[in-house]
Amino acid sequence: MKQMASLEKALGKKEKSLDNIQNQIVQIQSGIAMKYNEMGTEIIDQLTSEERELLLQLNTEFTELKEKFIETRKEELEANLSTNLMRRQKEFEVVISSADSKTLSLEAESKEQELNSSKSSLDDLTAMLKANVDAINNFTMKMEELKRQRDNLKTLEANLDQTVRDGAKDLEQLMSSRSMHLAKQEECMKKIRDLGSLPTDAFETYRQKNKKQLQKMLYDCNEQLQQFRHVKKKALDYVNFTEQREQLERRRVELDAGDQKIRELMSVLDQRKDESIERTFKGVARHFREVFSELVQGGHGHLAMVKKKDGDTGDDDNDKDGPREPDPEDRMEKYIGVSFPGKGETQSLKQLSGGQKTVVALTLIFAIQRCDPAPFYLFDEIDAALDTQYRTAVGNIIRRLADVADTQFIATTFRPEIVKVADKLYGVTHKNRFARRTWEFWKD
């Protein structure tokens, strides 16, 4: 029984040693994973050349130490396991010889299972160790491949730098050649200009010919020109000027035709404009007579266009309302003549008082409103200069136009005549330089 206890104790130690080995394998795997993670970063690209060389040296030493550690550890494990297995085998033989057959058989079966389990664990550990060694080898191979790629990239970078330098040198030569050819081109153009006027198709005719052909043609031309030394070189100017004159003449004919059409169109438009103005003016003049008769009982007024004679400026052009601008072609101007009760003769605007001018102005506004009504009108104290009868007449006309033409009139007043015909009233007061509405009401 003591031997069994010692065997179990030894087995426990081996299991503990097995756990330690597994922990070491886990640590090695973690270290490998960390190395893989470091490979995925770009830290190496940010190191200096000295740091990169030191890192390469450390990686090499690490790989060598790792391989030595694995080999040493493997040998220790194999030696320990072999020694323990042989010792346990001898212990089993002693136990078997001293125990009865039944107990020995059970213990042997149990120990056999433990032995098989230990062998299985050893196989697993050996496989894991081999896998780790393979992973380290793969890591080393990838590092070597990355080094080769880095060397290739450096070589490619050097080649590209050389190509760029060669290209810059070629570009400089091309720019120098371009400047030289531009100078030659300018010199040739100057010589061409010195020849005088050339035919319009000269460049197109000789553009497709090569240099030898042009030189031969130039030589032949010079030989032929020797026969015409007495002829002026600028005689071709006459041909060019003739062609230009014909083109300009055709252009002038086209412009004259366009000008004639434009003048005809302007004449038609002016005629239509005059007809429209005359038609509108007649309508306003008719309504002017009607409205003036409504505002001024017993009075009459008329609005007319008067054709003036040349040089006749008239007295009405420079009244207080400003000079009227006659039509420069028809010598027409607008004329307003009115007659108030008790005055007898027809009077012009400059002969009227302030209240009478207000009546005439309101008459013209109401006449235009009847021809072309607007949505609403805003009157600001239009009755301030009017007499009582005129204020009443103006209020009645506003009331009638609002009902008939569906037009809104907004008026400010201090007089009661317009207030009487209003639909809605607003009261406004003024205090301390501020105005505010104090009341409002509808009239039935």
TrEMBL record:
It holds the Pfam family SMC_N. It comes from the Eukaryota. One of its GO terms (biological process) is chromosome organization. Residues 88-432 form the RecF/RecN/SMC N-terminal domain. Residues 108-166 form a coiled coil. Residues 320-332 have a biased composition (Basic and acidic residues). Keywords: Coiled coil. Residues 303-332 are annotated as: Disordered. This is RecF/RecN/SMC N-terminal domain-containing protein. It comes from Oryza punctata (Red rice). The lineage of its organism: Eukaryota, Viridiplantae, Streptophyta, Embryophyta, Tracheophyta.
